[in-house]
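User: Hey, my collaborator sent me this sequence without any context and asked if I could get a structure. I don't really work with proteins. Can you help?
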Amino acid sequence: MSKICKICGKTPMVGNHVSHAHNVNKRRFNPNLQRVRVLHQGEVQKITVCTRCIRSGKIEKIPRGQKKLAA
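Assistant: No problem. I've predicted the 3D structure and written it out in structure-token form, which is a compact way to encode the shape of the chain:
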């Protein structure tokens, strides 16, 4: 699974882990991705979305068992 949000395109970032003795090692900051059922481009799909997109309402979650949105 790629670590990319399908809505905003957020990807892993690179930074440093700095110890108390100031030893520096490279590390990765991965986005918090969740696999959710959403209404995406007119159809129900399971896509990988970051939690910021879920929280801000950029997607429309679909409950399990529901095929389409009631009009």
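In plain terms: The helical segments are 51-56. You can pass these tokens on to your collaborator as they are.
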